[in-house]
Amino acid sequence: MKADFKHKDECRICRSKGLKKILDLGTMPLANAFLKKEELNKPEPAFPLVVYFCETCSLVQLADVVDSSMMFSDYHYLTSASKPLADHFCQLGEEIARRFATNRDDLVVEIGSNDGVLLESIKDKCRVLGVDPAKNVVEIAKKRGVETICDFFGEELAEKIVKKYGHAKAMTANNVMAHVDDLHGVFKGVKKLLADDGVFVFEAHWVGNLIGDGGFDQIYHEHLCYYSLHSLKHMTELLGLKIIDATLVPIHGQSLKVYVAKHGEPSRQVADLLKKEKELRLDRIETYKAFSDKVESNKIKLLKLISGLKAEGKQIAAYGAPAKGNTLLNYFHLNGDTVSFVTDTTPLKQGLYTPGTHIPVLAPEKMNEMLPDYVILLAWNYADAILAKEKALRDKGVKFIIPVPEVRIA
Fold this sequence. Notes:
This protein has helices at 68-72, 83-99, 117-120, 135-143, 155-165, 183-193, 207-210, 229-238, 268-279, 285-311, 323-331, 365-370, 383-389, 391-395, and strands at 5-7, 20-28, 47-53, 60-62, 64-66, 107-111, 127-132, 148-150, 168-174, 194-205, 225-226, 242-249, 255-261, 316-319, 342-343, 361-362, 374-377, 399-402, 408-409.
């Protein structure tokens, strides 16, 4: 297995040595490596999941990097499977087209375009091009009429795109920058592909939310980086780019929405957010050590609750099979003996089993058929929407356990 991952001893952004360990979640399988039934008795690859902090540029990161082809060549996550997320990205696409790609000939490039939901929403307003390394989701995007290159984005690919399509008036990447090991290569590619007056708009989960109201389950092997605006400012300045605007958006708890350009001055919002991060001490290792203690406390509370329910003979299921849910299930050692099944709207996951814990993934309608006593809401970041959607299920007596950030029953 060791040949499938490497350990880095320097920061991805500033290249400084001596990263400080802040949280060790042990050894886990890949969060999206769902299994077929015939694979359950075969050896399952697993890798260290340990979080580090760089005291020089404040980047929170994984140092153990799994071979990207293992994670992304065949991908089970589809943006379109989550309506709130799909709606959010369509709105972002509309903003990009309205503000930055105002002419029919303007080019918009999305890095990690997945099944093409965002680009499909604006393909009649401007030229669009997706880039994604997962062959299966690229085929889905093409069926939507979204031209997509099946590859990893970097400086070399940026040069090829410029030669064939010209420079991009706008670029975007959403829930993608966390996956990038070679940050310098991607940002150099962005700089090469962007027009002089172009803008790169991207969203990434904010580390302030991760350690605050968010959850440790956002940590898995695909997510190599956990960003603050401070760390991103350090990255862009190294390459001569400018952060001209930034804000927090209520997606995945809270995500950073960052606007990067070749020229321009930062907005007042940039200064305000940098100040907020200082006040939250996101540049201090003590903050992250306190977060590690919080994770352990959360684990103890949830396991105590579930142990009590099982002792009473209650049936427990799970709702949603997001990648982050597999971090929680594995770190808490909740397997098929404790959780009977999990339902998910993603057709690619249905009929498979969760990595490491081997819980069967069923279609959503099975929840109504089987009516468990309690349901662990693994997609807890959409708790309000899901609880409203499943009112009929709750009226039948099914109770939802919200596991993060504080254990509660709804």
